[in-house]
Amino acid sequence: MRRRSEISNDEQSALRERILGFGEASFRKSYYPELRVRLLELERFRFTLDQINVGIMILDSRDGTIVDLNEETCTILGGRREELIGAKFQNSSEVTARMYEKMRRGEEEVAIYEEIHQSTGSPYSVEITTHQATFGGEEYQIVIIRDITSQRSAEQALIRTRDLFEAIIRISHMQDASEKSILSSALMIAVSITQSSGGMCGVISPDKRLFTIYYYQNGGEVAYTISPFGKNGPWESIIRGDEWIGQPIGKRLDLPIMEGDQIVAIITLTEKKGRYTDLDIRQITYLGNALWQIILRHRAEDGLLRLNEELEGRVERRTRELEAANRELEAFTYSVSHDLRTPLRAVDGFSLALMEDFGETLPAEAEQYLKRIRLASQRMGDLIDDLLLLSRISRTELSRGTFSLSDLAMEVVAEIELNNPGRSVAITIEENMVVSADRRMIRIVLENLFGNAWKFTLKKEKADITFRSRSDGITTTYIISDNGAGFDMTYARKLFIPFSRLHTSEEFSGTGIGLATVSRIIQKHGGSIRAEGVPGMGATFYFTLGSNRKYPEERTRDDERNNPAC
Amino acid sequence: MTKGTILLVEDNRDDELLTLRAFSKNRIANPIAVVRDGEEALDYLFARGSFAERDTQDQPTIILLDLKLPKLNGHEVLKAIREEETTKLIPVIILTTSLEDEDVIRSYELGANSYIRKPVDFSEFVSAVQMLGTYWLLLNKSPQSR
Q1: How much is the pTM?
Q2: Any CB–CB contact under 8 A between A549 and chain B?
Q3: 0.90 surpassed by complex ipTM
Q4: Pair A137, A14 in one domain
Q5: pLDDT at A389 over 90
Q6: Which residues does chain A have within 8 Å of residue B121's beta carbon, measured at their own beta carbons?
Q7: Cβ(A336)–Cβ(A384) below 8 Å
Q8: How far apart are the first and last CA of chain A?
Q9: Which of A152, A235, A240, B60 could cross-link to B7 by cystine, CB 3.0-4.6 Å?
């Protein structure tokens, strides 16, 4: 076990002298027990050195000759002790050559040395430390070799996992990215973290008709081809699941991306420096699944986007159609307003001209007929006006403002009285009724309701009209009642339908559009209207104007038209 | 009463006849020029086309303008009148059947002086023309007489 090189020359000669010069007896007597102890010590030391998992080498400082080494060094270097002793350290590799140069300059160094194991094909790493030592008056280098392969691979796995997660997050945050750029990025990452020299990624289109293959060679650009699915030869057969996949085949790794039990894409990596490892399989599988989720999300977003665009397009089309219809309607009402009335004016005007210019020569009967013609044409004029008003109200936006309903009612009543003198009607209007509504429109409501009450009390000796309000705390109801002709409740719902009348025009004049207009205005305000009546006893109209709250964009509108001339 | 010309822009023969009748009923004896559409109205005022011989210094005292006209409509005619130096001060009275808000607002925006709706009832029209005559022909001095 003991080796010449382990102890100095002086020691050796001293020992030799003792053993040879003093004979067996004296040796046993004086030196032998001590020697024996020393030898045992050395043996124990040697055994310990061979047991530890750190390689230890002793080099001759003068020329780098390996003078001794332990068992672990043989394992690491992959040689037998007999072969290694006497070899030159610096001849082993570039790293040892460099280290040797430093040793010669008297520097100590720690170096990492990585290589692929010849027999297993997997990489291994060692850490080599050198220390200078002098014993027996001679210079030696103690070289410590530590196998750090598992430590290094754990570190690398951590770094790779970090890189992978960062990459997945980066890909998932790619805004407005195309499927191509997502897959390209993923492929580049797969190649980079597995240290492959290249890779491919094949993806089936959602409708299973096209097959896109992305190609990437480390350091190059991602290229791609699109072809009909089903014409891609053996590689595609991997996707169809005909071939054995999921395990490294030599220098290639094929990994499927699954959606349920369907293969939807495949990642292939090639020409890694060593063999593909379990970590490669785990990480690329993870990447593939994450990637697919991102792609699915993008496809869903694209679908949603397309749907939105389609919907927007449809809305736009409908709006255009509606606008066209509206324009037509407006042109129609405009035309009605002008063209329908013009001939009526001629009928009325020339009838009057006849009466004025030839009245004396006309028989009384003819004059009666002419009067009837004039009344009829004027009535038609009123009908046209009422219809136009109804259609205008339907088209007009509300312009709400706060105003006194009581004041407006008094204004309307004063106007009616002015236009129909000679009647005595007792009108009672509650004070301080304030509303938030479209004043112009509410004026039309009051004109109609008061006008009706006035009209239908015509035959009463003592006509009574009251206007008051009633609140239940949430909604205010406005009530106009009269003691006039009233109506049969059976026909109450017909009151608000255009052109339906409950009285003949001989009894009471009217076009039958007024209450329809009133109802339309109330509806526009979000309110409601109803009527109660008893024939011969009178009628009562109840209406609400929706919520009483004030509107933020409230503005009052000046509805008086300025006419400087007339 | 100044005997300035009244320019009536009216395409409907019935309306023309009735308007003239309303004038005579109100003893408005001013000379009346009648044109049938917007283009003719501008030809008259700017002495163009068949009115090329007309003296542009002799402009009407008032213009009665219908809104609904063939070729150029009343609003377009009004705009052209207000943009032209020789005609921009002539009182323009819109005489029309329409009482649509937009028509009224647009007319005033373009500088109409008055807006008279032609009612179906001819008697009403006669009294409207009477007020018109009193105001524009009698009380209100036209730019030329100033």
Answers
A1: 0.46
A2: no
A3: no
A4: yes
A5: no
A6: 348, 374, 378, 381
A7: yes
A8: 137
A9: B60
